[in-house]
Design a protein that fits this description.
The strands form two sheets. The chain has a five-stranded parallel beta sheet with strand order 3-2-4-1-5, sandwiched between helices. A five-stranded mixed beta sheet has the order 6-7-10-8-9, sandwiched between helices. It has six helices and ten strands. It has helices spanning 19-27, 41-54, 77-99, 120-130, 145-153, 221-239, and strands at 2-8, 30-35, 61-66, 105-110, 135-140, 165-168, 182-186, 202-207, 215-220, 244-249. A hairpin with a 7-residue loop joins strand 8 and strand 9. It binds S-adenosylmethionine (SAM).
């Protein structure tokens, strides 16, 4: 039966690769590399660099594939994501049938860790449900952008004994600073930190973490948010793309 490995490759630094991930890539007959268009070609380059550095088997093949673009017009967020996942599932199904012989192993190189704001696992489950190609799969964990962020800022993720909320820019207002003392914000296309007016809230921001372009900045939100906005816009213009993540904190260790 075909075997699929969903391999977490870390969040930008090729040295995030674990021994388990390296061994998985070397077990794979085919490495599946997503391409995300010209602007984000650096992400595909990082995946290629990882393969060049760590894959020692000579007979492995690479299959690059274009990721379908999410269509948003006239659809709710849930509808557009559902349709997008269906389109990606179709392209995975095609890849498994066309690129992988029935006894071969293929690996998907997943940014960061496959469990965190990534849908490879649920899309692979969708392909299984189609019942058109038989395969089994396993998941290899990777270093997440959240770990890269907290390491670069030299901070623990949580306050002592306290919970953490991981959310998106779109939903930040529901949790911070009301419910959570620590919120990690990913996939923030709207710079939701600009809406935080609490004078006691701190932000630990990072962009392009793990890459040579890494930028980090921290401070009281109300004092540094304009600077982050400016630096973010300049960096985005310069590179043509940006990925950023941040941790918001209000409270102290051993606080009530
Ligand atoms: C689709 S999610 C994938 C998360 C990934 N699975 C992980 O484990 O970090 C993409 C979001 O992760 C964050 N991200 C991923 N890599 C990053 C990096 N190198 N620097 C900053 N943010 C990053 C950004 O918030 C980005 O919008």
């Amino acid at each position: 039966m075909r075997q699929i490995l969903i391999v977490g490759i870390g969040a930008g630094n090729p040295e995030h690769m674990t021994m388990q991930a390296i061994n998985a890539l070397n077990r794979a007959d085919v490495l599946f590399i997503p391409t995300k268009g010209e602007a984000k070609s650096q992400l595909a380059d990082i995946r290629r660099d990882i393969c060049d550095r760590y894959v020692t088997r000579a007979d492995g093949r690479v299959a690059e594939f274009a990721v379908p673009v999410r269509q948003t017009v006239g659809r709710s967020y849930d509808q557009s994501v559902d349709a997008w996942h269906a389109a990606i599932a179709q392209s995975y199904e095609h890849l498994l049938i066309e690129e992988l012989k029935p006894d071969e192993t293929g690996a998907f190189l997943v940014w960061g860790d496959p469990m965190l704001y990534d849908s490879t696992i649920r899309i692979i489950e969708r392909v299984r449900a189609l019942d058109t190609v038989a395969f089994d799969y396993s998941v290899i964990p990777g270093i997440t952008s959240v770990q890269a962020l907290t390491a670069s800022h030299r901070i623990p993720l949580n306050l002592v004994g306290k919970p953490v909320q991981i959310t998106t820019g779109r939903r930040l207002a529901e949790s911070f600073p009301g419910l959570a003392e620590t919120a990690v914000v990913m996939l923030d296309g709207e710079q939701a930190f600009m809406t935080i007016d609490d004078p006691d809230a701190f932000i630990y921001w990072g962009a392009y973490l793990g890459t040579p372009q890494e930028i980090i900045l921290s401070g009281r939100v109300v004092e540094v948010r304009d600077e982050i906005l400016k630096i973010r816009a300049e960096a985005r213009d310069r590179h043509g793309w940006i990925m950023d993540v941040y941790l918001l904190r209000k409270g102290v260790d051993f606080g009530a």
